Amino acid sequence: MSVESSDERRNFYRHPSSAPIQIFPQQAQLEAPMSDISEGGLSFQSNVCLPEGNVLKVRIPHVQPPFEAPCVVRWQRMLDDDNHFEIGVMFLDEQAAFRVKMVEQVCHILQYQQQQRETGRELDFEAAAAEWISRYAAEFAAQGDLH
Question: Which residue, of 37, 64, 92, 121, is most buried by count of CB atoms within 10 Å of its CB?
Fold first, then answer.
């Protein structure tokens, strides 16, 4: 198992996130909680260890527009037990401007979810995303090109 140094893994500012994502290694689909996300890639937790260099597709269904990107596994590390891993992937061919907007949108949704929690409303990520999109997505999209 390979782990890159902090300098190699931190070329971009990382935003913590617990948004649900979908991982498509080969013909399978895995549901996974995201650990963090940046312009260059993201990390997620999985009970499946994916080898470095493995190409896969990541899908974030709860942002607008839905985000899909081919990625390559750059690193992995074992977490608390033998069957739980954190895996870091790098985006392969998406435009940086789109990735930045997607990162910003996920962070806004998580902030909205936290604000609602502080008022006594418990929303899962999907419900928070739906509400945030209906209220703020048009204004957010107007701030820049989402392609």
Answer: 37
